[in-house]
Amino acid sequence: RGPAPIVPPPPAVGRMAWAKAAVDYPLAAVLLVLAAPVIALGMLAVRLGSRGPAVYTQKRVGKGGRAFVIY
Fold first, then answer.
1. pLDDT tens-digit profile of 1-17?
2. Which of 25, 40, 52, 54 could form a disulfide with 47 if both were Cys (CB 3.0 to 4.6 A apart)?
3. What is the enclosing helix (H) or strand (E) of 42?
4. How far apart are CA 45 and CA 38, in angstroms?
């Protein structure tokens, strides 16, 4: 006998989807505000500890040979 299959929960629909969004978005906003100082300190540490930028950038070539920058 093998392990039990993992069955994902059904997606939220109707009122449940609205209730989930009503919790998810404010919670994400609060967590982002709380994480922002920690992220800023990390960026400052990188900037002070090395000569390069705190945010890594890279040039890529996309569709049709058009160049763009990713961060």
1. 788 889 888 888 888 89
2. 54
3. helix 15-49
4. 11
